[in-house]
Design a protein that fits this description.
The complex is a heterodimer.
Chain A: H1 3-19, E1 25-31, E2 38-43, E3 73-77, H2 79-90, E4 99-103, H3 112-119, E5 126-132, E6 135-140, E7 143-148, H4 155-158, E8 170-171, H5 182-185, H6 187-194, H7 197-208, H8 216-220, H9 245-258, H10 268-272, H11 280-294
Parallel strand pairs in A: 1-3, 3-4, 4-8
Antiparallel strand pairs in A: 1-2, 5-6, 6-7
Chain B: E1 11-16, H1 20-29, E2 38-43, H2 51-59, E3 64-69, H3 80-98, E4 105-109, H4 115-132
Parallel strand pairs in B: 1-2, 1-3, 3-4
Classes of the chains: A alpha/beta, B alpha/beta.
Chain lengths: ~325, ~140
């Protein structure tokens, strides 16, 4: 189904939900103020539903707003977002009956940074970007150029295993085919795994010396739902407020361990990082470790207990003395 | 006259109040010898140990961290040690990926009657840490 058709169906569904009073809010995407961007739209007004969009730039993981709005909400969710929602249900942060999921089978999202790098042009200089199957057509100066989709998708989209929402009330369109490139998706992790321990530590040390501890990664993360984060504790003071690399690194390590089994590899932390720290090389690795050790994938079954609250009587004993 | 002092690793132990701490107590009462490198923090249960504690200890300059609790099935709170085990497994693997030497994160089951085992664990861990060397992870001038 074309994006346009999906959009029309979404408008209809969202409007009906609000009109019939099934939900108090609609959480979706609308066109952003900059070219090729979208921004979250949270509304109670049924006339606003005409502004909802579906396109290859709907990057935000909207499930992060579910814990903030009061009342019932209708939410637009891609594959990874739906898993975040399921994960929140598992943690009892939201109730399934309070949300209506409008699922979008997602063929992957376009990373504008990659597009800019590929063409050597700023996004403002591009006229149009359209997508058809495994080709992306980019129009610059009136000329159209074709690129393989794999070259412009986000890294996490390239490694996507479940493009179709796992949990939904309405599915907009057919279950999606996915165009993936698993090797490219974890290229950096592979590079890191190949070098020595000391080099790995130095790599992260360098990366985190750029961190300004703006906490954008934490705030955008649906798995980071604590009311009070350990970084804001003052007694004991776990982290010094000044963003030195030691504390930045500690923050990110602990954050990753705390969200183990909740992270669905939606890639939001890396996308929002203003310092371009490759955070997905941490979250993705954690995702893989959890899968490897406990055969657990986040947000797949809303009735399953969360990873860190469950246990098997015999497991992971090899490191215990 | 100056004497060469051999470097001794600093080990921080989180011992569960019901089993491992009692085990350490027993080692003391039985006058067993074990390296004095370990500093002990008594925790209600090994399940109380947040991975944050482990990283904070490394950040403060401890060369290694030992988390010790009751054997599976013996937890005073039924399941605390199972949760600890899962969390520790993840923490250890993840820190290894970050570039922390795996020997710095240690875990053991020591029951209240195992003064001998506690002695053995502390000796082994201290020996391993001596091989790994000082914790320079968070030092600035590297």
């Amino acid at each position: 189904m074309e994006d346009r058709e999906r959009e029309q169906r979404l408008h209809h569904e969202a409007k009906t939900l609000l009109e019939q009073g099934q939900v108090d809010y609609i959480i979706g995407y609308e066109t952003g103020s900059l070219k090729f961007t979208t921004t979250p739209l949270i509304t109670k007004d049924e006339d606003d539903t005409d502004r909802l969009v579906v396109n290859p730039f709907i990057v935000n993981n909207l499930s992060v707003y579910l814990t903030e709005v009061k009342g019932k909400a209708g939410i637009v969710a891609k594959g990874c977002d739906s898993r975040s929602i399921v994960s929140l249900i598992q943690d009892n942060k939201i109730a399934r009956e309070d949300i209506v999921i409008m699922g979008i089978p997602c063929p992957g999202l376009i990373d504008l940074k990659k597009v800019e790098l590929l063409l050597g042009k700023d996004r403002d200089e591009l006229d149009n970007i359209t997508r058809e199957g495994d080709k992306v057509m980019i129009t610059v100066d009136g000329k159209e150029k074709d690129f393989p989709t794999t070259e412009v998708l986000f890294d996490n989209c390239l490694g996507c295993e479940f493009p179709t929402p796992q949990e939904y009330d309405v599915l907009l369109g057919e279950p999606s085919f996915s165009i993936t490139d698993k090797v490219a998706s974890r290229a950096r992790i592979k590079e890191l795994e190949a070098v020595s321990q000391g080099k790995r530590w130095n790599f992260w040390r360098e990366e985190f010396s750029r961190c300004i501890r703006c906490y954008a990664c934490r705030n955008v993360c649906p798995a980071c739902f604590c009311q009070r984060c350990f970084v804001e504790e003052t007694e004991p003071l776990w982290l010094m407020p000044v963003p030195r690399w030691q504390d930045n690194l500690m923050f990110q390590v602990v954050r990753n361990i705390h969200v183990a089994g909740r992270c669905t590899d939606c890639g939001e932390c890396e996308r929002v990082c203003p310092m371009n720290i490759p955070l997905r090389s941490l979250t993705r690795k954690m995702y893989e470790l959890v899968d490897e050790m406990f055969q657990y994938q986040a947000g797949m079954d809303k009735n399953a207990p969360p990873l860190l609250t469950a246990y098997e009587p015999t497991e992971a004993e090899d490191f215990m003395r | 006259m100056e004497q060469e002092v051999e470097w001794e690793p600093k080990l921080l132990g989180f011992l569960c109040r019901w089993c491992s701490y009692a085990g350490a107590d027993l080692a003391g009462i039985s006058r067993k010898k074990y390296p004095a490198n370990i500093a002990v923090i008594k925790v209600p249960c090994s399940g109380r140990v947040d991975p944050l504690f482990i990283i904070k200890a490394l950040r403060l300059g401890f060369d290694g961290v030992l988390v010790s609790g009751c054997y599976p099935g013996d937890c005073h709170y039924q399941t605390g040690n199972y949760h600890a085990r899962r969390r520790l497994a993840i923490t250890k693997k993840f820190l290894e990926y970050m570039g922390v030497e795996p020997q710095r994160i240690q875990a053991s089951w020591v029951s209240a009657s195992e003064g001998g085992k506690f002695t053995k664990v502390v000796s082994e861990v201290t020996k391993e840490l001596k091989e790994v060397g000082t914790n320079q992870l968070f030092a600035d001038g590297r």
